[in-house]
Amino acid sequence: MNESNKLIVSLTSPYARKVRIAALENKINFEMIVDVPWNEDTGVIKLNPLGKVPVMITKDGASLYDSRVIAEYIDSIGDAQFLPIDFKERIKVKQIEALADGIMDASLCIFAERKKRPLDLQYQWWVDRQFGKIHRGLEELSLMLGENDYFYGHKISLADVAVASALGYVGLRFSDDFSWAKKYPNLERFYSLVMKRPSFQTTVPVI
Ligand SMILES: N[C@@H](CCC(=O)N[C@@H](CS)C(=O)NCC(=O)O)C(=O)O
Question: What is the whole-number distance in angstroms between the Cα of residue 92 and the centre of ligand 1?
Fold first, then answer.
């Protein structure tokens, strides 16, 4: 039995940002442990065979991954109700979360290709393919949001947390490639709105 939940994160991870925001908004006590999974001496593989963050060690000692599982777990023990109870409605929110996570996945692929692979082995076809996913994903999110404040209903949900985490990460990694904020003014309006919340401000990715 642990005294509090532990959240193993890296400070740039958009998936980790998603669950940190969910935990803060749900007022779940957690001890944050920073562990960069790319480092040789990472302890993450002992907690998650996939070697990825975030991981949550719950008070009763369970090791939870990935971010979608952790976010759902947090929602079940907190009272922010970021996921609808009704199954069909819940699926709508989780679909948007999946799209945002897909943008993160493609962004991570480009990051790994550019930063981890030797320059002469980098494959532009692969990078372009991932950028295609990011651009189509952002286009779809912009269409989904339209003139609304939030992605689902009239209050913040896990969909908004996931989208904001994806947008923050795309901005962090690709500011030299393009500006999502200039291309999609409604996504910028949305990001400015959610960034008024301390949970979003204190989790902005830092290098
Ligand atoms: N689907 C996973 C993705 C997690 C993920 O890819 N995390 C990255 C950090 S942003 C990582 O730990 N990468 C290390 C690796 O792939 O070896 C989730 O939602 O938690």
Answer: 23
Report how far residue 102's alpha carbon sits from residue 1's, in angstroms, rounded to the nearest whole number: 35
**Which of 52, 104, 161, 169 has the most ligand 1 atoms within 8 A of CB, as the residue to mutate?**
52
Assign a CATH topology to domain 87-201: Glutathione S-transferase Yfyf (Class Pi); Chain A, domain 2 (1.20.1050)
Beta carbons within 8 Å of 96's beta carbon, 6+ residues apart = 141, 144, 151, 152, 159, 162, 163
Distance 8 CA to ligand 1 centre (A): 12
Residue 144 CA neighbour count, 13 Å, CB half: 21
- Reported as a single tens digit per residue, the pLDDT across 128-162 is 999 999 999 999 999 999 999 999 999 999 999 99
107 Cα–ligand 1 center, Å: 11
